[in-house]
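Appendix C reproduces, verbatim, an entry submitted by the partner laboratory led by Prof. M.T., so that reviewers can inspect both the input and the predicted structure.
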Amino acid sequence: MNTGTRRVDSKYGLLTTMGYKFGDRPAHYALEGSIAIAGALVQWVRDNLGLIERSSDIESLAKTVKDNGGVYLVPAFSGLYAPYWKDNARGVIAGLTRYANKGHLARAALEATAFQTRDVVEAMEKDSSIKLDVLRADGGMVDDDLLMQFQADILNRPVVRPVTKDATTALGAAYAAGLAVGYFKDLKDLRANWAVEHTWKPNLDDGEREEMYKLWKRAVTRSFDWVS
């Protein structure tokens, strides 16, 4: 989250970092929420459990069920990062019943990324006192429409996928270099290059949203202090 020229020292488990600085203009700061396992969880479902052949198959498997069936997967494989910072946490699958099947596991794996994102977004809003109007998403997982819709649902905020969705970090570095050598005139030139490919709007009952998030938080606490 860009906090502008104001450096915000986090009290809610985030990292304060330099966003960017152009020439002699003031530096802009940001709050960063690092999550250890997101897309790697899909790889784990593919390689370790063998439930899918390709990472992209997880969406179709998750669509075989209408919801997560009460199953929550906390991917604390090497501890939990922001906003918890629990290095002795370990992964858990909670809420299993005989009803649960591989479709529910696939859905729980996708939803874990969205739940972790909400954890970070809420911490950012508390630290910065800035209300997030929309979440801009990029990277390989944004091709998963089911995940993007759920992300909008659990955040209760629109989620947008830009036209350029890969190598965003490298693109930012290229933009900065382009500004430095005069290839781009100003920030308006950069903004003109950004465009939305798709927007997902929340479509989930408030009560259901908060009940699911409450169960996610309960599952997260079950992962705490697993390693003594």
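The first strand starts at residue 2 and ends at 4. Additional entries are available on request from the coordinating office.
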